Hints:
0% strand, disordered N terminus, 189 residues, rod-shaped, mainly alpha
Amino acid sequence: MTSDQPTPAPAAENQGQPNHHAGLFTYVPHPHIHHRKLQGPVKVADQLDKSSPLARLNSRLALIITIAVGSMWAAYIFTVLALVSLPSAIQSHNTIIIVGWIAQTFLQLILLPVIIVGQNIQGAASDKRAQQTYNDAEAVLHEAVQIQAHLAAQDMKLQDQETCLNEIIATLAKAYPGVMDKMTAEGQG
Length: 189
């Protein structure tokens, strides 16, 4: 088994789950189930580089700056900052300077924090979707185990009925040997 493949769940993890050794089916849980329970859903914060102290510091610093710049308050401050140079751009009466102010000063300064705010909202929504998907998968797996337990109970009942039916047939065969031979011959013909 390579490191890419999940290892089987320990035996203790399988306790309380249906095990159909006597029936027609043997339940073997997928190894991913054990790992999924341990790890939970992937979140955006899980993607931060934690490989070394310097990487952790850089990740933390980048996160702090992103949170500060990626706020609507930063967008408001950048708007005021951009508007400071607007009168000079208008007074120049130069189309290139006015277009440059709009494109390079206003749009870039304002759109940067607004885009970051949008990405933060999308990241939070993504984390929420991941948690909901994880919970849904957990529920589906629980339901599948319940279905397997129900099928195991039905298998046992069917085996009991088959045993009872075979006993009745054997009793009838002893009591009415000719009738049973005739029925057997007709069933094969």
